[in-house]
Amino acid sequence: MLGTTLPTPLYPLYQRELDISSPIVTVIFAVYAVAVIAGLLFFGHQSDRVGRKRTLLAGLALSGVSAICFIFAHSLIPIYAGRVLSGISAGIFTGAGTAAMVDYATGEKRRAITLLAVVVNVGGLGLGTLLSGLLGQYAAHPLQLPYIVDLALVIAAIGGIFAAPETVTGAHGRMNLSMQHLRVPEDIRSVFTRAAIVGACAFAVSGVFSAVAPGFLGVVMNVHSPAISGVLVFVLMGASALGQFVVPRIPQQVAFEIGCSTLVLGMALLGGTIATHSLAMIFLSAFASGIGQGVVMGFGLANINERISERRGEVTSAYFVIVYAGLALPVVAVGFAAIPLGLSTAGAIFAGIIGFVCLVSAVAGRLREYAGSR
What was the pLDDT predicted at 369? Predict the structure, then answer.
């Protein structure tokens, strides 16, 4: 997962090096998100069929080839190829990796392991931006060195997968690359729908911070620093990982409301950043948004995994297909809306929409809880 966010602080460098526009940057980001969805649809259920280890090794192989594409990228074509391969790899790990970790636990430990899986996922995303931001600012060859480090980590991870036990018994089938049907058991559909809608909003915030914030820092705030861009997204992802730890300690309905409310706060702070161009406020917005994202994601996955015992890979993949759609579409919308409206206005509209959806979700959840108690 670390490898998937390496380009984030480097986008302004790619813009100068390859003479590409800001909307194209959002398209590059969206290509990654669409590839994640493809990975989930075509590979998310494979681990139920062929085993977790074989599926995860395939994901690592794609991640390694993606790093090689970026090391030798001197045009948009290898960048697109690298993002597609990275996205498919992330799709494999998001579904199969989470399912594999949950397989190791039973009973009451399942919720804690689900939490750990999400923390590892989000933590890797944050470490990727931190690594490439610092190397992009202070090291030689900033557009190659982060991917060389990533390639070395991929090789180490392959050794780790080989050493891990297989958790799917009797997994001797062949991969079938037909698209899986996104079916959710009827008894968890209401929980699934609520978690997926807010999860999509949370991922939309991550997408805008990852794809648009580096450009906003440079164009609007005159801050041209890969390190600051990397630290900004790291704060968001680190806060998201921190938010996961809140989930097991409070009632589920309260967790959902806290997560939604904190996302609303994050969007209000983002609006304040756009109005004041305050660097401190955008970091506060990233922190609040990250906490909110972590809480709603942890709530959603824990709630879903507690209620299913079979075909966990498919249901987990279905959840992430929806949230990654939330990652892709708003980013492109903001990027292209910025052409006629300006980046500040497009960002303000985005913050207002996400804040409104989260607020309505929190109120609806409270009303549902109140109606159920009567």
Answer: 64
Nearest to 215 by CA among 343, 340, 326: 343
Mean pLDDT by runs of 10 across the 374 residues of the chain is 92 89 85 86 74 88 96 93 94 80 75 76 90 93 95 94 81 65 74 85 89 84 91 93 79 81 94 92 95 86 71 72 84 87 90 92 74 60
C-alpha–C-alpha distance, residues 241 and 291, integer Å: 8
For residue 347, give every residue at least 6 positions away whose Cβ sits within 8 Å of its Cβ, in sequence order, or none. Answer: 208, 212, 216, 270, 274, 334, 338
The number of CA neighbours under 13 Å toward the Cβ of 180 is: 27
Q: Which of 317, 302, 312 is nearest to 48 (CA)?
A: 312
Picking from 168, 202, 190, 148, the residue whose alpha carbon sits closest to that of residue 6 is 148
DSSP secondary structure string, 44-77? Answer: TTHHHHH-HHHHHHHHHHHHHHHHHHHHT--SHH
- Residue 60: its pLDDT value, please? 94
Torsional sign, CA 373, 191, 330, 8: positive
End-to-end CA distance of the chain: 45
**Cβ neighbourhood burial of 162 (10 Å; 0-12, 13-18, 19+):** exposed
User: How far, in Å, CA of 331 to CA of 328, rounded?
Assistant: 6
Residues 6+ away with beta carbon under 8 Å from 348: 271, 274
Distance (Å, rounded) from C-alpha 109 to C-alpha 310?
17
**pTM of this structure:** 0.86
Note the Cα 285 to chain centre separation in Å. 17
Q: CA–CA separation, 175 vs 164, rounded Å?
A: 21
